[in-house]
Amino acid sequence: MLGLVDDLPKVALVALATLVALLRLWSVLDLWTVTAMRLRRAWALGGRRRVVVLLALGVFACVAEDVLEGEHDESVLWLDRQVRHALARSAPDLHHPASLVSHLTGDGLAVTVPIVGAALVIARRRREAVTLLLGTLGAWLVSGILKTMLAVPRPRAGPPWKWYASFGFPSGHTLVTIVACGLIVWALARRASRRRRLVLIVAGVLVAAAAGAARIALSAHWTSDVIAGLAAGVVWLYLVVSLAERWLTLPAARAT
């Protein structure tokens, strides 16, 4: 019975993903019924984002449950061990490129975000600039709060005088990267063609994934830290974008 309870988050996640896939397939194939038409309309009017957020919350819950309960026989911590063992054999070869990617998505984004924000201000898109800056800062704060509250140690501990550096769940580097990249993509894609928007989205996802992979290769985080960071970042990104899009529809006089 206890094993069933422990597996409930995973079962619920799989059930949700299956239901969404079936409903989406039905709405695409069924071109005649009113219900299918309503599903297509809901999908186009923000339903896609809501589904992604629900799935992200489910992923975070599944990973957090295994990590916090220390369930070493479950899939999440098993994956942590397997990735750790695989990297132990190739760590020297990966260290330099992983360190480069980590710096580019850490210090590099700390420079890129203000530059993009300044460019948006110059282009008279001040609300997008404020969204980018505050959303990224908020992601950094959220990651710090979560890591401090959950207190899950990294693969290697940080310096003793930096107690928070010993905590790694979820990966703050990954969380902030996906939010910063997502907000940059959102700001640039708002006035881009559909093809350019798709290219920007793919580029943002690849950068966030590369940042997470680099942190794992450097033994700064477990794989579970990175997966949770991506999931939490998706949720925070959705909240920021949703609020920003409502703000952008307000007249300038009301927004100030």
Give an overview in words.
- It is a single chain.
- With 256 residues, the protein is an all-alpha fold.
- The chain has eight helices and no strands.
- Helix 4 (126-150) runs antiparallel to helix 5.
- Residues 1-5 have low confidence and may be disordered.
| Estimated radius of gyration | 20 Å
Q: How widely separated are the two ends? A: 56 Å
Task: Give the tally of structural domains.
Answer: 2
Quantity of strands, as a count:
0
Q: Report the average pLDDT across residues.
A: 82
Low-confidence residue ranges: 1-5
How would you sum up the global shape? globular
User: In this structure, how is the largest beta sheet organized?
Assistant: none
Class by alpha and beta content: mainly alpha
Task: Write down the secondary-structure element order.
Answer: HHHHHHHH
Strand content: under 5%
The quaternary structure here is: single chain
Which features characterize this protein?
8 helices; 256 residues; disordered N terminus
Describe, in short, the structure shown.
The protein has 256 residues and is mainly α.
List the helices and strands and how they pair.
Blueprint: H1 2-29, H2 34-69, H3 75-122, H4 126-150, H5 172-189, H6 194-217, H7 223-248, H8 252-255
